[in-house]
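Page 42, continued from yesterday. The earlier attempt failed because a stray header line got pasted into the input along with the sequence. Redoing it now with the clean sequence only.
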Amino acid sequence: MSTAQDLTGSVYFTYNQSTGAVGINEDKSQLPDALTCQRSDGNRFTFTWTP
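This time it went through. C-alpha cells are written below.
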C-alpha cells in the first residue's frame, strides 16, 4: 500500500487453546478509523482500508 499519510494503530490477537481459534482482542486493539477487519475464514482475517 502506498499512502501520503501515517497510519497508527494496533491489533492484538487472542488464541483459544481448546478450540485452536485465533481472534482479535477488541478491548486492546486500536485500529485507525478507516481500517476495518472481518474474519474471512477460520483463522484468517481481511483488513480493509477505506479512505
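Notes: The CA atoms of residues 36 and 50 lie 8 Å apart.
Reminder to self: strip header lines before submitting.
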